[in-house]
Design goal:
The protein is α/β, with parallel strands linked by helices. 55% of the residues lie in helices and 16% in strands. It has 9 helices and 10 strands. Helix 6 crosses helix 7 and helix 7 packs parallel to helix 8. The radius of gyration is 30 Å and the shape is elongated. The relative contact order is 0.06.
Length: 339
């Protein structure tokens, strides 16, 4: 593991030098600053793994500087250990209140400094590793989800193409014997072809995620509904606000929730009617509603780690949206995603 970088901020050069010599001897890379302004300039160039911060400094004191660090997305996660001759409980509490992780009282005992530094660097590195693993797991879960959806679409498309080919081969013989029946098969052939085209477009979307970006969300939802309608006898009604183009991550969330909801209706709901709405409420924001009149289910029966439900809730939360599923056995299901 590479040596950790520590920034020492103290307006007394002697204090900085003593800590620098001691911590460097234990393998740490040390940089020093004599003021909050000097430290800010150094942070703009390199981010340390930990900051040792004096409280009593001119112009901007340590508490104020820490508050500034914690308000910035770039520096808010860097652990800050305060150093001060102020030793009252109220001083220490203020340090924790503005975001410090620890508080050392001057005059400093180097052995204590070393233990605190090691402890908080370990905690910081462990937290970063957990975040890395979580991001990796989320990415893997998303990949598995995409692979599942693409596999389902591929299987459905193959089935549609097989049916199209079978009807097309039989149509001349049917027409020769029964022209009226041949017309019915021709209509069925046209419907299957439309469904296969919709499935092909959806499969291409799964393989090219950038195709979701910059596209009217209403068009994407119509495409999903076209696939659903081509493979179902459920009556479908649409009420879609036009001209909605969201940031890429948010657009993907709305698309995926609609996709998962319609897949669940097709597989489980036994519904006769599905209503899909994309609304812009007068109060602002955006709302996607997918409502069916199917058999519903008991929400308590869904395992907490159910893949589809968990992923949808996590995705909604990641873009600041809320996902609510209202359902009861025998009373249908309503999926509501609100931004």
């Amino acid at each position: 593991m590479p040596a950790a970088n520590i920034l020492i901020v103290d307006d007394t050069p002697f204090n900085n030098e003593v800590l620098k010599i001691g911590l460097s001897a234990h393998g740490y890379k040390i940089d020093t600053a004599l003021s909050a302004e000097d430290a800010e300039a150094k942070l703009a160039r390199t981010l340390p793994d930990l900051i040792l911060l004096d409280v009593l400094m001119p112009h901007i004191n340590g508490y104020e500087f820490c508050e500034k660090l914690k308000s910035s997305f770039t520096t808010r996660d860097i652990p800050v250990i305060f150093m001060s001759a102020l030793h009252e409980t109220v001083d220490k509490l203020r340090g924790f209140a503005v975001g410090g992780v620890d508080y050392l009282t001057k005059p400093l005992e180097f052995d204590e400094v070393l233990v605190r530094v090691r402890t908080h660097l370990t905690l910081y590195q462990q937290r970063r590793e957990i975040e890395r693993l979580y991001a990796q797991a989320s990415e893997l879960a998303t990949l598995h989800e995409r692979q599942r959806i693409a596999r389902d679409l591929h299987d459905s498309l193959n089935q549609s193409l097989f049916s199209i080919n079978s009807i097309a081969e039989a149509l001349p013989r049917i027409f020769a014997k029964n022209p009226a029946k041949a017309v019915q098969y021709a209509q069925q052939l046209a419907a299957l072809t439309r469904g296969a085209q919709a499935e092909m477009r959806a499969l291409l979307l799964e393989l090219r995620q950038d195709a979701l970006e910059g596209t009217d969300l209403a068009d994407l939802l119509r495409q999903l509904c076209g696939i659903f309608a081509a493979n179902s006898v459920v009556e479908l009604t649409l009420d879609l606000a036009e001209g909605v183009v969201l940031p890429p991550q948010t657009q993907t969330v709305f698309y995926r929730v609609a996709q998962e909801a319609l897949n669940n209706v097709a597989r489980h709901a036994q519904a006769a009617q599905v209503d899909v709405s994309l609304l812009r409420p007068d109060t602002g924001g955006l709302e996607l509603i997918i409502k069916d009149d199917g058999r519903g289910f008991d929400p308590a029966s869904i395992p907490a780690d159910h893949f589809g439900v968990r992923i949808m809730h996590e995705r909604a939360a990641a873009v600041g949206a809320s996902l609510v599923v209202n359902t009861l056995p025998g009373h249908g299901t309503t999926v509501r995603l609100k931004l």
